[in-house]
Amino acid sequence: MILKFYDKNNNPDDIQRVVDILNDGGIIIYPTDTMYAIGCHALKERPIERICKLKKIDPRKHNLSIICYDLSNISEYARVNNATFKLMKRCLPGPFTFILNADSRLPKIFRNRKEVGIRVPDNNIIREICRSLDAPILTTTLPREEHEDIEYVTDPELIDEKFGEEVDLVIDGGIGGIEPSTVIDCCDDEPEIIRQGKGILEE
């Protein structure tokens, strides 16, 4: 199933439809400010396991990230000091993933890992869904085969053609990007860029 969304003024019924899918343990594909991503309700274990299986990743070894609507309830899911919070506030919403020490409110699948990635994308579609859900969304970029056309992770019609049978909904938010987020590790005292992506960190 594919559903067209716009940057603003989306039908509240469409938003509620997506929220219902997430609350029911469904998996969705959606645009962000970097690339199209696949995600689910971050506090529900079963759909997280489905996504890890789809991406062929082991959650015990692979960092998992969540999307929050803003930073207001960040302390429920991660431990963050004042300096890091100020840095995040300066950069977000934006194309960054901040790796923080995880808090125990996240499901058991996260607890094998001491860290969690936090995203607040500069994309109104997924943030509006996140706000309406009133919970974080587990997020990970779409898997892509090495020699596969890039359109299969950027064009919603082709994304639906490839993944439509494996997910509950594809959100068409227009053609997506090809550059990932910049990842900043903030688990220690000094923030460290561990992947340079779209986001440029101002000094």
UniProtKB/TrEMBL annotation:
SUPFAM superfamilies (alphabetical): YrdC/RibB (SSF55821)
Q: Which superkingdom is the protein from? A: Bacteria
Question: Could you list the residue ranges that cross the membrane?
Answer: none
Q: Name one Pfam family in it.
A: Sua5_yciO_yrdC
Q: Where does the YrdC-like domain start and stop, copy by copy?
A: 12-199
GO molecular function ontology, one term from the record? double-stranded RNA binding
Record InterPro entries? DHBP_synth_RibB-like_a/b_dom, Sua5-like_dom, SUA5_domain
Record NCBIfam families = L-threonylcarbamoyladenylate synthase (TIGR00057)
Name the PANTHER family for this protein.
DHBP SYNTHASE RIBB-LIKE ALPHA/BETA DOMAIN-CONTAINING PROTEIN (PTHR42828), THREONYLCARBAMOYL-AMP SYNTHASE (PTHR42828:SF3)
Q: What is this protein called?
A: Threonylcarbamoyl-AMP synthase
Q: Which organism is it from?
A: Phocaeicola coprophilus
